Amino acid sequence: MAKNKKPRKAYDSYKKEQTLADAHLRKNKLAVWFTCDMKNAAVVSLSSKTIFNPDTKTANAIANYSHYWSYTLVIFCRDQLGSEYLITGEPELPDLNGKPFNSIRMRQNEVAESLDKAHKKFMKDCSNTLHVCNTGWIAFPYKAEIDEETICQIADKHGVWNFKSKFEKMKAEKVKERQETTDLLKRKATPKLVGKYK
Fold first, then answer.
1. pTM across the whole model
2. Helix, strand, coil proportions of the chain in percent (round to 5)?
3. Is residue 63 included in any domain, yes or no?
């Protein structure tokens, strides 16, 4: 007696392309990097520690398919003595419908929106706002972690620290005010010379 054959599943081209996109990003150790000085997010290679605008293949792999995301929020700080340090965290975040990030596939634009909102609360809870000189996040379209040393290497390479903290801005403003006051007093103390032509 012949066995009943199970019906073959219909070919799903999207699912196949999604699997290839996942493999491409994971194999090349690519993630999405964003800091507040950037107009748009970019791609970071964890292998070369470089940030770059993606080619079409990579951009499509990230933006056009849903992924299981992991992420790290980062605050770049500099204290009154000039010492630089990081505050990092991976707070549990829901997606736009309230489900945990790591339980469902999400599009990159949905992840970015949720991370941007979460970062404001993260800054308020975790940092001395006078020390903050930049903020950002790193999002992986696969399960991954990143250590602070690697974040610093990427940040150093791409000028992420090249912004003044609130404390430094306040200090610079006071120096400017003192200089303006000194210049004004000098002008007042200097007698005007008079000349007449007959």
1. 0.77
2. 40, 20, 40
3. yes
